[in-house]
Design a protein that fits this description.
The protein is of the alpha/beta class and about 425 residues long. The protein contains twelve helices and 15 strands. Bound molecules: glyoxylic acid (GLV) and manganese (II) ion (2 copies).
Length: about 425
Amino acid sequence: ARTGSPSARGGWGPGACSGAGGPTACSCGGGGGGPPAPPHASGGYRRYAWTGADADCRLWFRMQAEARRLDVETDRNGNQWAWLGDPAAGDAVVTGSHLDSVPDGGAFDGPLGVVSAFAALDELRSRGVSFKRPLAIVNFGDEEGARFGLACVGSRLTSGQLTKEKAFELRDADGISLPQAMEAAGHDPEAIGHDPERLSRIGAFVELHVEQGRALDLSGDPVGIASAIWPHGRWRYDFHGEANHAGTTRLVDRRDPMLPYAETVLSARREAELAGAVATFGKIAVEPNGVNAIPSLVRGWLDARAADQESLDTVVAGIEAAARAHAVRQGVDLAVVRESFTPVVEFGHALRDEMSRLLGESTGDKVPVLGTGAGHDAGILSASIPTAMLFVRNPTGVSHSPAEFAAEDDCVAGVRALADVLEGLACR
Ligand code: GLV
Ligand code: MN
Ligand code: MN
């Protein structure tokens, strides 16, 4: 923590990146300066995969790594790695997170984990420790899935949970395919896919992340350890009706897909309450999207999550049944497609317990263990390698919003905790 504030909004963090232009418009060279000015009116970031904003963040990562004399590489799937030691030696300890964002995202979700990783390395160097295992800092590509609709594309490809063929089918809202976007950003899409060789070199991955709830605020702790990630998924609902004139079409003659869509949003809320789950329609596309036209198509995306698979199945089935009934009543056709799914993740006890022990040793405190409804690359990789997560207190719990926040003291506590864990894993 000696290199300055690890706050993601700090002058040297990727919060300083302009989301608007290409790398040349970037003020993220790490040179300090005043607080960065987020480029969007909301105060949030729009750092989508394989865009100029993404390139800005990648450039920032490279500069931070090179300033620390780390070897930087981009893997076949577009994830960036900064190595201390020889990757081929194996059993590496890896830390990091992601730098992309949701639409109008906050400064901490993702960047805090990457910034803290660099700061923790600085802290370890200032402690004068020697490394017995290779250490890497990683920036996973396209964690949020804001552009192509699928979350954790970089880690899913690497772990084999997303095939090259399926990845090639992904398209953004403008119809640009993932391989086209990769190619335009200078990355060879032909090489993407399962990378067991890379995974075999990793002994442990620890991701630090801002908490996306208020458990730590309520318990009064700056840092916690993750226990589990709820099963979750995304479903696309296509309500097909009939376009017609908004002024001249009698109400009884309409096949308006907006009506069953609106009723389905309310049903989702009800079903989630009944199942003790959460369900959200947060994204919608309307065709033809004219103020004076009845829509021909309303496409809504459902994000549903629950503490266990049975509750998730219940809420998802309940919402679909309600949507079909609403659609029939309005003479509208409905197609539902599951676009992605992530099963429950239980982080392995061996690494978790080791982290608790290391943090207990350094602070004398028992570190709380908490679950989360948010998805992470650590959750994806947990199927292939030992992974664990540290959470840093978020006083309001707000996330995926410009209001996302963590206090500087808590960010420093997060860096110290990460450094303690890395020291215990890589230096003893
Ligand atoms: C990612 O942050 C997610 O939980 O969707
Ligand atoms: Mn997120
Ligand atoms: Mn995240």
